[in-house]
Amino acid sequence: VNAEIITIGDELLRGEIVDSNKARIAQRLLLLDIECRHQVSVLDDPADMRDAFVRAAGRSEIVLVSGGLGPTRDDLTTEVLAETFGRELILDDASLETIRVFFERVGREMAEVNRKQAFFPSEAEVLPNPIGTAPGFSIREGKTVFFAMPGVPRELDLMMDEQVLPRLERAFYGSEFGSEYGPETGAAAVGGSASGVGDAMPVEGRRVVRAALLRTFGMGESTLEAELSDLARDEAVELGFRTSFPDNFLRPFARARTAEEADARIAGLVAAIRDRLGPLVYGEGEDTMESVVGAMLREHRATLATAESCTGGLIAERLTDVPGSSDYFRGSIVAYANEAKTSLLGVPERLLEEHGAVSEQVVRAMAEGALERLGSDFALATSGISGPDGGTPEKPVGLVCIGLAGPSGTHADSFVFQVDRTRHRQLTAQVALDWVRRSLLGVELVGPSLMRRGGGGSAP
Amino acid sequence: VNAEIITIGDELLRGEIVDSNKARIAQRLLLLDIECRHQVSVLDDPADMRDAFVRAAGRSEIVLVSGGLGPTRDDLTTEVLAETFGRELILDDASLETIRVFFERVGREMAEVNRKQAFFPSEAEVLPNPIGTAPGFSIREGKTVFFAMPGVPRELDLMMDEQVLPRLERAFYGSEFGSEYGPETGAAAVGGSASGVGDAMPVEGRRVVRAALLRTFGMGESTLEAELSDLARDEAVELGFRTSFPDNFLRPFARARTAEEADARIAGLVAAIRDRLGPLVYGEGEDTMESVVGAMLREHRATLATAESCTGGLIAERLTDVPGSSDYFRGSIVAYANEAKTSLLGVPERLLEEHGAVSEQVVRAMAEGALERLGSDFALATSGISGPDGGTPEKPVGLVCIGLAGPSGTHADSFVFQVDRTRHRQLTAQVALDWVRRSLLGVELVGPSLMRRGGGGSAP
User: Burial level of B302, CB count in 10 A (0-12/13-18/19+)?
Assistant: First the structure.
């Protein structure tokens, strides 16, 4: 099957925004084992759009279009698709009502221009958009199905997940498993019989695909690959790798003839990976280090505070980005100036003079000061030289000391992270949060492999 | 002139990486007033690549290709371009030597596979790559010129800036201004006469282009557009708008026959915008709100501290992301728990009981507490309900109170920002930082238009 993505908008062609929609659509297609073969971007220009649509109809069975569904004169996707394939534009009263209600809900009146968004090519199937004013739609043209979706990323994502993928899954792998997604409420045909996708797409025998995403921190990609190389020897399973600094993601993937078989296969692969990697796997799917640490703190009924110098509030910011974090996060003292370390955290001046602000002695005192003054069960502290300036031969740019005070005492260690300022702060925050997780798991507090001071490596 | 960008690589089509090369190439073309009309991505597949090249040659005068110049079997751009247009592959000894020297410099031996990178289609012009092993090249095919460049972003950027843009500028606007970029050292023809671009491209008379980027905060895009609509009536100047939450960017653009004229025109337009918008323009180019606030604090020899509740350390994190921020930033107290507001910031318990943590009274006390305890000249405080939960009829989700204590007293105000949790925190941080800037400028401390509590609007 050939899949093609067409994104539409002058702003893309001018490079005013980086088009991430294509990548996000392609990733989702891969969940159904559908590889995208062509990606095209065109201006808000009817001739160029028509040209792209005709060409896509000639070479691809699935065409995912994003953008051009808005209310303005520049938004031409619906009109041009209809015109290209000789269809009328028909007002869908139900969609018009939905748009009206949407505006009501946000306390504004629907403008006359928004009426346009309730028109669709004849025989289109409407794809509801519960979080925006632009519904999507699909039309079939010969062997090709077009899905037209909004360009706003979160609206696009939701429409892909709730409307498009279930239809594709049913079409390719039979209807048996579509029910997992629940019925697509609100989908309706416009101006005649619906061009239901499921009943007419080429089916290559039932194949069910399951994918997972495992998030790891602390081991380099090539080491991970070597460590796990024997786990995906089978045709039916695959193991992908992706780096997203400072983490590495694993993407196990399983195919089978039935859902049960595929579920069992992916579960087996995930279990084997977890068994092999132990605490290096910190989460799955949409987890983040801060959400995992937060959930563990809540479960242990423990609280956390931070005393941050080089991370400058980043750890606190990440922790409080998680809704409900007030249950376990007490607060932070960002002691950027040395005087603040003394006055707010009670770090003895003597320690600062003797060992300097970037020292294990000082981060210990900072962590213990935060623990006491914020009344938490755990407290993290960071102090380092994130650069680009401020290094000395003895204390080079990249040096960082991390401390964790907790019920069983205080642990501190030093690392040299040879990365730029932003990544230095990100990596420091990740190690620090990972220590809380490891402490609650009762395993050793380590840094990323090869990055201990003097270890010689420079990549996590 | 039609320009087209073709990016090549399986990883793009799978969505494993977001393709930012297209945007960066397109932005650079705009500097020469060349609009990109088509963007295409294809797999590392000879048939698909050939198809894309043939099509591009049929519709575009300038084709910028990125990717597929590496040493592996998957890297096919050079071979397929040569084959598509019936050219031989010829070894360029000078390039081979350059690649060898490159490996020597990084202390490695050149592998046999890298020899491949010194082959080019006949009559190609080689484009040197001083920071990687993959040289680029250009070939002319009828009315179309292809530029083949590496896919590694920094190598691509350098090749665009030092090799491709000067050639295009000479071709389109005569040679007069090409000298700004300096000579393109090392460019050499392969296997016969060079397909010099400059001497054969369509020249539409000399034109010089200048662009600027103005960053504004506090006024909605449509209001900005209305406010400035009369400034770009001339053919020679244009004014673009772009939203990058929570800011709006203005992109003035000027054309002229000489560099002096273009410089004068863009300076005039920028001055007119600044005159019209006053303090709504907070910076230009690569400025950020935190870098601008930092530079102003340094200039005024003033220091800043923060007391953050709902922003959870975000303001401190942003301030300390700027190198050298220890000159003016003292630190932050992230008082997430109420007890921390009392113990660390000295907020009277009575105030918390009487008015609640999200109140102007409490943020005043927080700001004043931070000012005193961190010994700074200015102190910001935030307290709000970022959601998704925690609202009451009287204090809805989205409510936020911001305070600024400074030499001339304490100012506080309340807003309701009806945006999601992440944006609520971003917007709150931006208003707070903007207040420091406005305070140092001696202008009124306002929030985004329409967003004052009860104002009724929902967009900045």
Answer: middle
Q: Mean pLDDT, to the nearest integer, of B102-113?
A: 82
A126 contacts A78 by C-beta, under 8 angstroms: no
| pLDDT at residue B207, as a whole number | 67
Over residues B110-120, mean pLDDT:
90
Statement: residue B6 has pLDDT above 80: yes
What tens digit of pLDDT does each residue of A196-224 get?
443 334 334 556 777 888 999 998 877 88
The dihedrals phi and psi of B156, each to the nearest 5 degrees, come to -60, -50
User: Residue B300 has what pLDDT?
Assistant: 97
Using CA coordinates, name the residue in chain B closest to A3: B13
Bridge partners for B35 per DSSP:
none
Q: Which residues pair with B182 in a beta bridge?
A: none
Q: What is the ipTM, given to two decimal places? A: 0.74
For residue A45, how many other CB atoms are within 10 A of its CB? 17
Q: Considering only CB atoms, which chain B residues are within 8 Å of A329?
A: 312, 336-337
A137: part of which helix (H) or strand (E)? strand A136-141
Q: Which residues of A touch B242 (CB under 8 A)?
A: 11, 16-17
3-state secondary structure A274-317: HHHHHHHEEEECCCCHHHHHHHHHHHCCCCEEEEECCCCCHHHH
Contact A337 B331 (CB under 8 A): yes
Choose, out of A13, A103, A158, the residue to mutate when testing the contact with B (most B CBs < 10 Å): A13
Q: How close B189 comes to chain A (CA, Å)?
A: 31
∠ CA A183-A189-A194, nearest 5°, is 95
- Whole-model pTM: value is 0.75
When the pLDDT of each residue in chain B is averaged and rounded to a whole number, the result is 87
* Alpha carbon B184 to chain centroid, angstroms: 26
- Mean pLDDT along residues B175-184: 35
